[in-house]
Design a protein that fits this description.
single chain, alpha+beta, Dna Ligase, domain 1, 5-stranded antiparallel sheet, 13 helices
Length: 430
Amino acid sequence: MSKEFFIMNILVLGSGGREHTFAWKLAQSSRCKAIFVAPGNSGTEAIATNLNIGVTDFEAIKSAVLEHKIDLVVVGPEDPLVQGVHDFFLQDEALKNVSVIGPQKAAAELEGSKEFAKEFMVRHNIPTAAYESFTKANVEDGYKFLETLSAPYVLKADGLAAGKGVLILNDLQEAKDELKSMLVDSKFGEASTKVVIEEFLDGIELSCFVLSDGKDYKILPTAKDYKRIGEGDTGLNTGGMGAVSPVPFATKEFLDKIENQVVIPTVEGLKKDNLPYVGFIFIGLIKVGDDPKVIEYNVRMGDPETEVVLPRLKTDLVDIFEAMANQTLSNIDIEIDERAATTVVLVSGGYPEAYEKGKEITGIETVTDSIVFHAGAKYQDGKVVTSGGRVMAITSYGNTYPEAIKKSYQSIDKLNFDKMNYRKDIGFDL
């Protein structure tokens, strides 16, 4: 059998909209024999086999990989990467020939520690905001550093706080109080034993996604997500309320700047620092004037950005993953759908604070003009019910992003669950 037709059993780790999108895209490949998702959700259950396994339960993942003869593992969320799932595979005789899409532990620190990421950027001359980091021991110095900055003040918990460990405050006293609450009172637990304070950058944000095989890279389409719960980008931070791709303000000139000033120094920096990297590099950027600056790195695809980036990918995803695993990415042509894609996220009432679960979701089967990606949703007694804060992402194509957004909102009108909430202004600022 020739290599081209090598068909694979693939395991996707994760349970959100991102993982449903991966499974949906992989299912379109003739090279995919079977897809497993651990733990998955009601969306993945319809197109793959869900395995009731936690994403950081490495022993259980090992058993599943051996039992189901898995050839390739795609890691969705950051936790298993930061905890070293890729290293676990490399160090295990029975697993070391299974391909893992996601960086090894040392490189995953780019997301695992804000300080590590900042030091990396400074070392490789990657444009970013001025910063300093503080611990409980030198909280007083933190107060003094805040006094040197002008409002607003940006405080970031160093460790993983599920996308919620970043505070932007306008009042100096409030910033000092919050710094104390993070460092001294452990507001974000372990994640905030160290806090990075940085200068505020004023501009418009976008996300850039890079595929890396450890040697070469390919850039995927840009996207922009909407983090805050309320219209006009107000209120509490969330995991993301919607996204659009491509980003209309990202001109060819600007994209070239991103590639030359950010992407290439990042990929080369990883090699120089001897940080093996097979996976996605998510670069959170801000356009300040005409220049890109890096806000943060993530070592996986973003969510909900995946739900607008992957649907625009025309190239077979199995081919791409195989090339990443074999370090042959330079031989692959990434073909992109010219249409815009947008997604609007439906969330549980009360989210990102306390919310109820177990609400039946109706109308899914009536949506025809959009793709419904499930996130915090599961099957229970033959019904799809809510099981998380972010419940679904409703993705649509259009010749323009306003056309695509309109479709997503028309589809949302057909869906319902108790206290369903969503933003009505995705794409408003473009």
